[in-house]
Each structure stands twice: as C-alpha cells, then as structure tokens.
Specification:
The chain has eight helices and four strands. It is mostly helical and about 575 residues long. It is about 85% helix and about 0% strand. α3 links the parallel β2 (about 60) and β3 (about 85-90). The N and C termini lie far apart (about 140 Å). The radius of gyration is 65 Å and the shape is rod-shaped.
Length: about 575
C-alpha cells in the first residue's frame, strides 16, 4: 500500500493500526511524508497494530517527525512483531534515547534484516551497534534458511528413496507371483499330462486284460483240441483193437469186411494226422502269443518305469524350483531388510547428526547472542558511564565558568565601588589597588587550576574513548572469530554433504546389485522354462510311442482274433457243430 504525502493525522493512524491488526495479506506499506509521529496517541495505536500484525514485511516511515517517545513505542511493537524484515526511519527526530530503545528491541527481534536510521541525530556508536545487530539477524536468517533447505532436500531424497525401494519391492513381488503362477500352470500341465499317460496306461492294461482273456480262450480251445486228440487216440486204440479183432475174424469173414476196416483205419489215421497238425499249429500260435504278451509286458513295464522316472524328475525339479524360489525370496527379503535397516540407520544417523549440528549451531548462536548481549550491555554501561561522566564534567565546567563569571562581576562591581571611593582617598585607593592585584592573582591561579582540571577531564575522556575503541576492536575480533567458526561449520556441513554423496553412490551400487540379482533371477527362470520345454518334448515323444504301441497292439489283437476265429472255424468241433 502507498500513502505517500497524505498528511495523515490521529484518525488516519488509528485506521492504519486497525488495518494492520486485522489484515493478513499486506506485505509492504509506504507512509513517507505524513507526520505520524507528531500525534502521539494515534502513533501509539498504530504501533500496537504493528505489534499484532504477522504478515507485513516492509514498512517505510521516512520524514514522519518521530521523536524518541515514538521510537520507544515502535521498539515495543518490534519486540512483539515476528514478520517485519525492512524498516526505514530516515530523516526523523529519534535521537539518542530512541536509538537506544531500537537497539534494545533488536535483542528480542530476530527477523529484522534492514533498518535505516540516517538523519536522526543518533551517535555513530549506536548506529554501528544497530548495523551489527541487523547483520547478525541477516546471517542468522540465511543460516536458518540454508539448514531448512538442506533438511527439506534430505527429506525429499529420503522419501524418493523410500518410494523407489517400495516400487522395486512391489515389482519383485509381482515377478515372484508371476513365477508362482507359471510354476502352478506348468504343474497343472504336467499333472494333466500325467493323467493322460495314466489313462493311456489304463487303456494298455485293458488291452492286456483283453489279450489275456483271448489267451485264456485259446488255451481253452487248445485244451479242447488236446481232449479231442485224446479222444481220437482212444478211438484209434479202439479201432486198433477192432482191427485186431477184425484181423482175427478176417480169416473167418470174407474180404468186404476187411476193406471196410481198412477204410475206417485210413480215415482215422487221416483225422489223427490232421488233428496233430492243428495241435502243432495251435501250440505254435500259443507260443507266439505268449512271446508277444511277454514283449508287451516288458514294454509296459518299461513305459511304467519311464513314467515313474519322468514324474519323479518333474516332482524333483518342481521341488527344486520351489526351493530355489524360496531361497531367492529369502535372500532378496534378507537383502531388502538389510538395505532397509542400513538405510534407516543412515537416515537416523544423518537426522541425529543434523539435529546435533543444529543444536550445536543453536547453542553457539545462543552463546554468541549472550556474549553479544553481554558486550552490548557492557558497551551501553561504559557509554552510559562515559556519557554521565561527560555530562558531569560539562556541568562542573559550566558551574566553574558561572562561578568565575559571577566572581568577575562581583569583582568588577567592587572595583567600581573602589574607583568611586578613590576620589575620597588615594591611600585607600592604593591599598584597594594592591588588594585588587592580589585578588586578580588569586583568580588567575584559580583559572589556571580550573584549566588543569579541564585538561585532566579531557585526558580522561580520551582514555575512555580509547577504551571504547579497544573494546570495539575486541568485539570486531570476536565477530571475526564467530565468522571463522561459522565458516568451519560450513566446511563441516560441506563434508557432511560429501558423505551424503557417498551414501548416494552406495545406494546406486546397491541398486545395481539389485538389477544384477533380478537379471540372474530372470536367467534362472529362462533356464527353467527351457527345461520344462524339454520335458514337454519328451512327453510328446512318449505319447507318440504309446500311440504307436497302441496301434501295434490293436493290429496284433486283430491278427490274434482272426487267427482264433480261423482256428475255431477250422477245428473238428466247429465242423461237428455245423453238422449238427
């Protein structure tokens, strides 16, 4: 806001005080050339509003006729205010007392960075002290802002590291879940393949059972054929007995009976030879079927062994894969926990170190402020003592001068009276002249003594000024020492920054290790997928072999069935049944 040269009075000052008390958005206020200090009540109300304000940063009060009382009110407001950074009080009537009040208020106000006091009849030592206090506030604000910026940057970096670690952990958990899903899918596929192989084995068992049933049927047919051969042998024996009987009766019976017996014997011999040939054929077929059954059983046993081996290998590989996954998960979790613990420890160490450095800085600042306050108090006491002594010396000089003047006036009056009396008597005049000469000599001696006393007071003032200069030099040396300590602290902070850079490099190395672990994990997964594909190819080959075996067994079964049907149809039992 700009109110330059508006001749504001009591009501305007009160309105501005109310505005500053209630408003929280004004940052700059220019009140140059308004004579606010001439109205004490209005200016005190304005100072109260300034003390209650917490948003104003710049205030211009040049040429406002502010005296030492207004400066005191303004100093009280500055003790309460915590936001004002620039204050311009040039070309007012603040004086020595007002300058001291403003200097005292700077002990409690730590936000004021710029204070202009030119043209206010303030001694140079007070102006230097005010400049030093303002510079100290400015340095303090810069150090606090730097520490706040560093803490903010460190907190941001810590949060970014936490976010990155959580993202990496979530990505790793996603990859682990995907791998689990893939392993479960492969296990389901292998289980399905095993179930298919089990079904194929069941089919082979059923085929073997059917072959066994056919073999039993062939064995039963063979037993029937052997029984038929036995019956035919018995018939042959019976025919031989009949032949013997016929041979006995040949001599008795004529040739026709003999021919009939010979025909029967030939038929029986032919039937016997045919039955023996069929028996041999059936035995050969039975032997071939038994051999085929043995080959089938051996092949089935090998297939079962292969299936058990493949299932065992699959189970072992699945268990190994799960164990590897669990081991990798544990290792990764352990590494993550270690990294997290290291990061937490480093962050705690950094925060503790920052807090300790901040506390040490605050302690040093407080100590320096206490030293500065003590030095300023000593300076103010010395200055007050010097000023009081100077005032006393000036008062004594004035008293001496007044006394000398009074004495001279009295002496002049007395001389005038004596001059008047000289006309009366010259003797008395001579005596009076002699007395007057004596009085003048005494006065001159007193004047010389007074001049000597004044010279001693001047020398004492010079000594006090030298003491003040030496104390100011000591104060400057202490300030330089403080600056050197602050530079050393800045060097320590830079070393801490380099340490933080080293920690960042360590974090980058750990991230690279994580990437290497993830790449190794991916390579292991690719190897496992290759092994699973090889197992799938083996299963496909086994299925092709089993299908080929099924076809061969079906062909063999069809051949056996045709042979058995042909044997049954060609056997004498079949002819006998057909004849019936």
């Amino acid at each position: 806001l700009l109110f330059q040269g508006n001749n504001l009075r009591t009501l305007g000052a009160e309105a501005l005080g109310k505005l500053l008390r209630q408003n929280k958005s004004i940052r700059s206020l220019i009140l140059e050339w308004n004579s606010l200090g001439a109205w004490e009540e209005g200016f005190s109300f304005f100072c109260q509003g300034l003390g209650a304000n917490n948003s104003l940063q710049q205030l211009d009060l040049r040429n406002n006729q502010i005296n030492h009382q207004g400066a005191g009110e303004l100093a009280m407001a500055l003790k309460q205010n915590a936001s004002l950074q620039e204050l311009d009080l040039r070309w007012n009537n603040i004086g020595l007392l007002g300058g001291r009040a403003l200097l005292n208020c700077l002990h409690s106000n730590k936000t004021l960075k710029r204070l202009e006091l030119a043209g206010n009849n303030i001694p140079s030592d007070i102006l230097k002290a005010v400049e030093q206090a303002v510079d100290h506030n400015q340095d303090r604000q810069t150090i606090l802002s730097e520490t706040q910026n560093r803490t903010y940057i460190l907190s941001k970096e810590v949060l970014s590291l936490k976010d990155e670690k959580t993202k990496q952990f979530l990505d790793l958990m996603d990859t682990i879940d995907k791998q689990r899903e893939e392993i479960a899918r492969s296990s389901r596929m292998s289980a399905a393949r095993v179930s298919q192989l089990q079904e194929a084995l069941d089919e082979q068992h059923s085929i073997m059972n059917s072959l066994k049933a056919k073999l039993q049927m062939t064995e039963a047919a063979l037993a029937l054929s052997e029984q038929k051969v036995h019956n035919l042998g018995e018939l042959l024996n019976a025919t031989k007995q009949e032949q013997t009987i016929l041979v006995r009766f040949e001599s008795r019976i004529p040739g026709q009976t003999w021919f009939e017996g010979a025909d029967r014997e030939g038929k029986l011999l032919r039937d016997l030879s045919a039955a023996s040939e069929k028996n041999l054929l059936l035995r050969n077929q039975v032997d071939e079927l038994e051999k085929k059954c043995k080959v089938q059983q051996d092949h089935l046993f090998q297939v079962k062994q292969d299936l058990t081996n493949t299932t065992a290998e699959l189970k072992l590989r699945a268990v190994q894969a799960e164990e590897r996954l669990e081991m990798e998960k544990r290792r990764f979790k352990q590494s993550l926990e270690d990294m997290e613990s290291l990061r937490v420890k480093e962050v705690d160490h950094m925060t503790q170190h920052m807090e300790a450095s901040g506390r040490s800085m605050q302690d040093r600042i407080q100590r320096l402020e206490a030293v500065r306050a003590a030095l300023e108090e000593e300076l103010s006491q010395v200055k007050a003592a010097a000023l009081s002594e100077r005032g006393q010396a000036e008062e004594e000089l004035i008293k001496v001068r007044n006394q000398a003047r009074l004495e001279e006036q009295q002496q002049l009056e007395h001389l005038e009276e004596k001059l008047r009396l000289m006309t009366e008597s010259r003797d008395e005049a001579q005596n009076c002249c002699f007395k007057q000469k004596q009085m003048v000599a005494e006065a001159q001696a007193k004047a010389s003594q007074l001049s000597l006393q004044a010279d001693g007071l001047r020398r004492r003032l010079e000594q006090l000024q030298q003491d003040l200069n030496s104390k100011e030099e000591e104060k400057v040396m202490e300030v330089n020492k403080v600056k050197v300590e602050l530079q050393e602290q800045i060097g320590h902070l830079q070393a801490e920054r380099t340490a933080q850079d080293g920690l960042r490099e360590k974090i980058a190395a750990l991230e690279r290790q994580l990437k290497a672990l993830s790449s190794n994990h991916r390579e292991a997964l690719l190897d496992k997928e290759g092994e699973i594909s090889l197992l799938l190819e083996k299963l496909r080959v086994k299925e092709a072999d089993i299908s080929r075996m099924r076809e061969e067994e079906a062909q063999r079964a069809s051949f056996l069935q045709n042979a058995i049907m042909a044997y049954v149809q060609g056997s004498p039992l079949g002819t006998h049944s057909s004849r019936k």
